[in-house]
Amino acid sequence: MREINLPLTRETIASLNAYDRILLNGPILVGRDQVHLRISKLLKEGSPLPVSLENETIYYMGPAATPKSMIIGSSGPTTAARMDPFTPTLMDAGLAASIGKGPRSEAVLEAVRTNKGLYLIAFGGCGALYATKVIAKEVIGFEDLGPEALMRLEVRGFPVIVGIDSKGNSVFT
Amino acid sequence: MKNVRQVDLIARIRDALIDASVHLEPSLMEKLDWMRRETLQAVEALAPEDANYKPYKASLEVLDMIQENLRLAESHRLPMCQDTGMVVAFIEIGPDVPLSMFAIEEALHAGIADAVKDGSFRNSVVVEPVFDRVNTGTNLPPIIHWFPTEKPGLTFSMLLKGFGSENCSALAMLNPTAGPEGVVTAVAEIVQKAGGKPCPPIVVGVGLGGTAERAGLLSKRALTRKVGDAHPDPRYAQLEQQIFDKLQTLEIGPGGFGGPLTALGVAVEYEPTHIAGLPVAVSISCWADRKATFVWEGPYARN
Q: What's the pLDDT score for residue B301?
């Protein structure tokens, strides 16, 4: 199976097609509903973000509690559609790719195409599986959000399927 | 202050919830195996250039990863899904139960709190829905539905209800003349609209009759039944089968990739309703259809 090193480069993105099954290695951001709401507000105000979005990949996820023996608890993807209203704004600010589960809106498809980015689909409900792919974890912003805080993860062999590619091909159309 | 009966009940609730978060009931595992076999056959019957090949292949990969995930959940004793849900509890109280409803509710809260702590659950509950959405920090409170019964003992049926699927639950208020076809169509429309969002393959609970809110409750109660068990009334069992067959034609597929099969099970519950209506409520569960059912009969001495 093809392994992709993060952060994503323009060449790597261009070489990936809808339905490609890949494994991700490297750093990803983690944020879901409230992180998206806050980042969008900061972007609108022109205020600085806790982290630059340039070439970043963001994973829509809120982990369960971490057991003593592990780096992170159960940590599968959440429904991507809830982030649809915010994704074009984040992509315009440099975000390269998002990871979630399920279909996206037309506006997201368009944002992925025009920004030459990606939407990657993680396997829904597979929280235990993804927990074993995380080798480091750090909270980097909005700590008050608890399980919904902005995080940086380092992942190895993190399985996803390309849901929307940079040409605008989608597995959902 | 907890008494000895409550302490015993709390431990039962805790253990049942942690077990439910880690593994699925055998009948659901069989359904997942069945779906994987059927999907594999469908993939193998297609040439790689067939338009269905990639969607079916991706659906098969979802079913494979679910199996891998369940193995890892078991070996690490981790919740299979990070959304350990809100607890929805159906509690039947028999005439011999020596605890008050208040004491039972207290025990349920304590049992959930222990499961959350010891089972590495996620705190997924917020205090109020609209403004600050502050996390309760305990995954409490649960949703509780009480049922008095002549059957002895205290029967707990609990769902760990994730919200990826719960966000796809819906209600249709049909005309009283809609009949079984109308019900099948209404459920199919709701499931079609949900598409790939609720983590398919799915288990579907359907509540028929009552009022709007009662139908919703019935749709949840249907989800507490063992996947694959048919309704005791043959007409409703047939309706379950019709809905099940219809949902397989929607081509949503595991992960929403468009595979050949979508539903793992359909359960219908009904109650009397008004002459002017036919409420149809649908509660969707993801494939991680986690539930815990047990009858508690002690420790309390019988006379």
A: 55
Mean pLDDT of all residues belonging to chain A: 97
Q: Is the sign of the CA dihedral B169, B265, A81, A25 positive or negative?
A: positive
**Residues B92 and B240 occupy one common structural domain:** no
A120 is in which domain, residue-wise? 2-164
What pLDDT does B188 receive? 98
Q: What is the pLDDT of residues A27-54, one digit of tens each?
A: 999 999 999 999 999 999 999 999 999 9
Q: Is residue B232 a part of any domain in this protein?
A: yes
**Nearest CA-CA distance, residue B119 and chain A, Å:** 8
Of the partner residues A70, A76, A123, the one whose CB lies closest to the CB of residue B82: A76
Does B150 share its domain with B13? Answer: yes
Quote the number of domains for chain A: 1
Mutate to test the interface with B, among A126, A142, A145 (most CBs of B within 10 A): A126
Q: Nearest residue of B to residue A62 by CA position?
A: B82
Q: Which domain holds residue B200?
A: 164-285
Residues in chain B: 303
Does residue B8 lie within any of the structural domains? Answer: yes
Task: Name the pLDDT band for A173 (thresholds 50, 70, 90).
Answer: confident
**By percentage, how much of chain A surpasses pLDDT 70?**
100
Q: Is B145 part of a structural domain of the chain? A: yes
Query: Chain A contacts of B257, Cβ < 8 Å?
Result: 161, 171
B155 and B221 both lie in a single domain: no
Per-residue model confidence as pLDDT tens digits over A73-122? 999 999 999 999 999 999 999 999 999 999 999 999 999 999 999 999 99
Q: What is the least distance, in Å, from the CA of A65 to any CA of chain B?
A: 5
CB contact under 8 A, B197 and A126: no
Based on the domain organization, do B135 and B259 belong to the same domain? no
- Count of structural domains, chain B: 2
How confident is the model at residue A146, as a pLDDT? 83
- Residue A121 to chain B, least CA–CA distance (Å): 9
Query: Does some domain include residue B74?
Result: no
> Following CA atoms B166, A122, A77, B37 in sequence, which dihedral angle do they give, to the nearest 10 degrees?
40
* CATH number assigned to the domain comprising residue B228: 3.30.1330
**Which pLDDT score, from 0 to 100, does residue B1 have?**
58
Establish if A168 touches chain B: CB-CB under 8 angstroms: no
Residue A138 in domain: yes
Which residues, given as ranges, of chain B have pLDDT below 50?
Answer: 303
